[in-house]
Task: inverse folding
């Protein structure tokens, strides 16, 4: 048969179905009439003739159905009829419909949002040329057990790797850097983040400039002509997107620098805050460019065709071991480790994202179970209808399909709403997630849509199949046999609901446990003792340009005048200078030896964080002095060979013995020298999420230009600290008009910033757990109300026969709380699994946190009791006469 | 009873050839030519007829019956004729096979 004919038939059937049905009716009637008239002709009475004709023909209704089933579009017909029924039954109970759709929308929306983020951040390849072939190389110290073992690379190591190994196609280096951008006349200075990249970095990544050109190898030398590449955002923001800036000069740290090109808009690796790139070598002094013991760079390499990553890395690692042996007294790593670039980008967010995705999937499961539970309850109300229909020959498939259509409708409506919800929430999530890598790539795409559609189908199956099958089975006929006075209810259906409820509670407990752990760990972070005053403290950073502040006297002079001025300001009760405030980051560390103690072995180095501080810093920040004294006004200029150390320093390197008068030998100024320990102070944290580190304080009044010219002024105020910010800035510009001041933050703000992502994840999981708890409560309430309603006659009879009401109440409560106990037991097992998953996200908290367990059990019990109390109370008020009569 | 599809499909197709017939006439004809052996519920003919029509083996036209009433008459199409040939061949082949099996036992 020609396909044209087939198409014609199909179109005719699609639009002419009603006419076709009429024709069929005519046709069948014609047949029967013919048969009847023939029967009459053979001598039957009209009545007998009719009966005989129908007997020979069969059930006309059934035949009609069978014929219709052969028509095209028959399934469409059935679907539209099911949809019509589905919409009608849902509209009959709008409360159920609305609640179910909202619950589904929430679940599907949240899951879609998280999937969008996971797919954009974790799954999508990096935007670089052949990005699957890019790996990052790191140094690995065999003896260092803390951290993940991936350490930054020293420039000397990188240069040796690149020139002496051949396993990789090429390797390039980059490092984070800071800088002050200003115009050619030093106007409009601003402090921005920048980076140094080797000349081959951009070609290696496959990045081409929008305007101008990239660095040349000749420019990638420590003392080469200063050049800069602008990122798109700086180009737009500061230069209004005008390409004529190419070839002109701007000032970077007051050094005239030529703009040679502009990077494309999409390039925001490794950090979107980076505003410009300098040649890698130009971020070093000529001496530093060759060192093997200063680690600050990251190295990216491209895999060579035909060489495995392992083999190439082993070659580099072997070379590194030679470098290690050649520099035995210095902290030089023994090995080189590599990992794919994508893993490097997502290392900090992979686990939180997956944990969040798991928790929304849990929430979605709970939502499905809840809708499923409600469906079962509704199916119970329609038991008799279903029984009659199946007794009359309604096929089970048709009945199941009808019920499935209902849950499909709920899921589709929920999914549609959820998709809208997730459009809004995804953007919000990506924007509010502190430091989320690739946040700009988070958006919905075809895959997300496919995922959402799949989710809708899966939830429809999950929410609809179980109730549909259970309510249409062979047992459904029992509903007819049961007398209207049935007292037992349907035990099997109640059991099904209990099982679903148990699963729901188990999932809720798991979620609650995860949320509790994360939240408790976050609270612990926020209340962590920094070791210093945190209220009414304002911090501000500035960096004196080294071109003009090139002698100790000049730097000291500025620092002293500044302190004198701000200490006189009203509202300021104390002011001091420190290189980096507590909790504001590690700043940097140095290796040293101790004169009075044996030298450390080559692999275990003495390392300490370094800070510079003025005499009043410790009293302004209320850092207790444990031994000796802190700096006085005498430790200034060249009388600077004195240090103060922290408690951890003493514990670690003096085993707690008195360190006063001992000497630390190391390089601080330009050459290695001895520094006398004059005091010990208590520890402060450089990052609340990290353990304490040994710390050395040098006197800031030494005024050594490149050691003390960048400083933080800390102010303790008697008024709102932020209100002091402007007066202090005015004092600074009175001393140095074009000096930019940045990071004007209170200690509370610094803490918020460092704990933001932990707080965000904890808040989200807590919200999901809260919603799940609410859903579980609703489910529990629904089930118990249903059980009570089903057993009202039984209970009435018991009461009439003399059962005590408290006894009845106990029976009902046990019935309701049983799933809670079983669910909680299963949930604790789930919680142990979840705990091990999030272990690494926890700060100083054990997975078996008694406070969390107690809090979780309390929440659950409270919800369960609230959910059970209303139906149970209703039972205890049952009036036996009324209950029995109403049946 | 013999399976409807296997036996009655070719039979039904054969009855509407060469001249078009309506449903009742087809049913009657099947009964006649099978010497009343095939006692099928007449109604079950219609799903088959409509299936053939959907497949394009037969077409329906409205025409007057001998009694003067309007009815749907089915006639064989070109595709239907090929299908009939195919089914007849199949049928005779399998019935021969069955004959052999029956004769040998």
Result:
């Amino acid at each position: 048969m020609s396909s044209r004919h087939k198409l014609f038939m199909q179109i005719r059937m699609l639009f002419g179905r009603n006419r076709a049905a009429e024709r069929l009716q005519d046709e069948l009637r014609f047949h029967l009439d013919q048969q009847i008239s023939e029967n009459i002709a053979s001598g039957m009475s009209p009545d007998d003739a009719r009966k005989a004709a129908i007997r020979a023909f069969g059930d006309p209704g059934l035949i009609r159905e069978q014929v219709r089933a052969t028509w095209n579009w028959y399934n469409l017909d059935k679907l539209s009829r099911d949809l019509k029924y589905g919409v009608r039954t849902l509209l009959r109970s709008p409360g159920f419909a609305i609640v179910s759709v909202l619950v589904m929308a929430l679940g599907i929306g949240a899951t879609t949002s998280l999937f969008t983020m996971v797919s954009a951040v974790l799954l999508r390849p990096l935007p670089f040329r052949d990005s699957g072939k890019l790996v990052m190389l790191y140094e690995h110290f065999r003896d260092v057990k803390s951290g993940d073992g991936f350490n930054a690379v020293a420039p000397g190591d990188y240069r040796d790797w690149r020139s002496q190994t051949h396993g990789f196609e090429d390797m390039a280096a980059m490092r984070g850097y800071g800088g002050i951008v200003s115009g050619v006349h030093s106007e409009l200075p601003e402090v921005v983040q920048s980076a140094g990249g080797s000349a081959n970095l951009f070609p290696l990544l496959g990045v081409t400039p929008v305007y101008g050109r990239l660095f040349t190898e000749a420019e990638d030398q420590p003392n080469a002509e200063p050049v800069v590449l602008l990122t798109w955002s700086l180009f737009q923001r500061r230069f209004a997107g005008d390409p004529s800036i190419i070839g002109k000069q701007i000032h970077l740290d007051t050094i005239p620098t030529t703009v040679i090109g502009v990077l494309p808009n999409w390039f925001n690796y490794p950090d979107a805050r980076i505003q410009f790139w300098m040649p890698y070598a130009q971020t070093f002094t000529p001496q530093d460019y060759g060192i093997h013991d200063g680690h600050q760079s990251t190295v990216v390499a491209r895999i060579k065709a035909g060489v495995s990553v392992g083999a190439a890395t082993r070659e580099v690692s072997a070379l590194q071991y030679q470098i290690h042996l050649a520099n035995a007294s210095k902290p030089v790593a023994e090995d080189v480790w590599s990992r794919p670039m994508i893993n490097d980008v997502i290392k900090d967010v992979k686990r939180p994202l997956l944990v969040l995705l798991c928790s929304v999937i849990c929430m979605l499961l709970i939502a499905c179970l809840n809708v499923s539970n409600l469906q079962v309850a509704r199916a119970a109300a329609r038991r008799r209808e279903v029984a009659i229909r199946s007794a009359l020959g309604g096929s089970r498939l048709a009945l199941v399909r009808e019920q499935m259509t209902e849950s499909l409708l709920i899921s589709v409506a929920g999914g549609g709403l959820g998709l809208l919800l997730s459009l809004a929430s995804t953007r919000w999530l990506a924007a509010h997630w502190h430091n989320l890598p690739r946040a700009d790539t988070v958006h919905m795409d075809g895959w997300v849509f496919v995922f959402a559609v799949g989710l809708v189908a899966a939830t429809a199956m999950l929410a609809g199949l179980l109730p549909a099958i259970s309510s249409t089975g062979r047992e459904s006929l029992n509903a007819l046999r049961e007398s209207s006075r049935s007292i037992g209810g349907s035990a099997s259906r109640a059991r099904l609901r209990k099982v679903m409820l148990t699963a729901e509670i188990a999932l809720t407990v798991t979620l609650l446990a995860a949320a509790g752990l994360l939240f408790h760990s976050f609270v612990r972070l926020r209340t962590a003792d920094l070791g210093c005053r945190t209220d009414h403290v304002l911090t501000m950073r500035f960096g004196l340009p080294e071109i003009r502040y090139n002698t100790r006297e000049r730097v000291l002079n500025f620092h002293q005048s500044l302190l004198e001025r701000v200490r006189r300001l009203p509202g300021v009760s104390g002011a001091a200078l420190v290189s980096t405030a507590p909790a504001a980051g590690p700043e940097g560390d140095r290796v040293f030896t101790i004169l009075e103690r044996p030298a450390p072995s080559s692999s275990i180095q003495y390392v300490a964080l370094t800070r510079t501080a003025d005499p009043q810093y410790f009293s302004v920040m209320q850092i207790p002095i444990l031994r000796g004294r802190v700096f006085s006004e005498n430790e200034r200029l060249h009388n600077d060979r004195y240090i103060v150390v922290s408690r951890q320093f003493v514990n670690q390197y003096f085993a707690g013995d008195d360190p006063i008068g001992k000497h630390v030998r190391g390089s601080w100024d330009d050459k290695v020298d001895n520094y006398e320990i004059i005091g010990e102070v208590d520890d402060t944290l450089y990052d609340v999420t990290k353990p304490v580190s040994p710390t050395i304080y040098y006197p800031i009044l030494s005024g050594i230009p490149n050691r003390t010219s960048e400083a933080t002024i800390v102010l303790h105020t008697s008024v709102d600290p932020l209100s002091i910010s402007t007066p202090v800035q005015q004092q600074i510009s009175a001393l140095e008009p074009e000096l930019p001041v940045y990071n004007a933050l209170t200690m509370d703000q610094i803490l918020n910033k460092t704990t933001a992502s932990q707080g965000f994840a904890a808040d989200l999981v807590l919200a999901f757990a809260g919603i799940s708890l609410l859903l579980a409560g609703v489910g529990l309430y629904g089930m118990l109300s249903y059980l009570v309603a089903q057993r009202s006659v039984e209970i009435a009879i018991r009461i009439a026969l003399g059962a005590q009401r408290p006894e009845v109440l106990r029976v009902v409560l046990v019935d309701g709380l049983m799933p809670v106990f079983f669910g909680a037991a299963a949930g604790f097992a789930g919680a142990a699994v979840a705990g091990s998953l999030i272990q690494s996200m926890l700060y100083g908290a054990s997975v078996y946190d008694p406070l969390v367990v107690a809090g979780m059990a309390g929440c659950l019990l409270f919800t369960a009791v609230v959910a059970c109390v209303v139906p149970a109370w209703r039972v205890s008020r049952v009036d036996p006469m009324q209950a029995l009569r109403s049946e | 009873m013999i399976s409807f599809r296997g036996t009655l499909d070719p039979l039904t197709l054969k009855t509407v050839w060469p001249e078009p017939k309506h449903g009742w006439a087809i049913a009657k004809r099947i009964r006649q030519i099978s010497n009343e052996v095939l006692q099928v519920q007449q109604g079950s003919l219609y799903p088959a007829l409509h299936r053939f029509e959907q497949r394009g083996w037969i077409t329906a036209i409205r025409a007057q019956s001998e009694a003067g009433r309007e009815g749907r008459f089915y006639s064989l199409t070109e595709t239907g004729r090929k299908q009939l040939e195919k089914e007849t061949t199949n049928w005779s082949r399998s019935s021969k096979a069955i004959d052999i099996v029956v004769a040998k036992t």
User: Anything to note?
Assistant: The helical segments of chain B are 4-15, 23-33, 45-55, 78-104.
